[in-house]
Amino acid sequence: MDIGTYTFxxxxxxxxxxxxDADNTYVIADAVKLVRNDSGETDNEKKQFEYTYDANGxxxxxxxxxxxxxxxxxxxxxxxxxxxxxxxxIKDGTTKHTT
Length: 99
Prior knowledge:
Order of helices and strands: EEEEE
Shape: elongated
Strand content: 25-35%
Distance between the termini: 60 Å
Number of strands: 5
Strand order of the largest sheet: 1-2-3-4-5
Helix content: under 10%
Number of helices: 0
């Protein structure tokens, strides 16, 4: 049984509710198949990032493996209170900026 086709915008959060009781509020279904529509504009930037976190959940390193990246590694250090203390911007192993 086809219960229809529905379009969801990517910039919002949506929910689908399945119920065992049919009334005017819910649709009864045993499965829902979500299909991505890739007919839109293609993202050709091909960015590639990797993230490393410490045991406290702090971001300690971000690497940008994207072609032509001006900075390929960002290293962060934190105080004992988990506040950001220093950010290093590194390119090919050489520190370019520190804040």
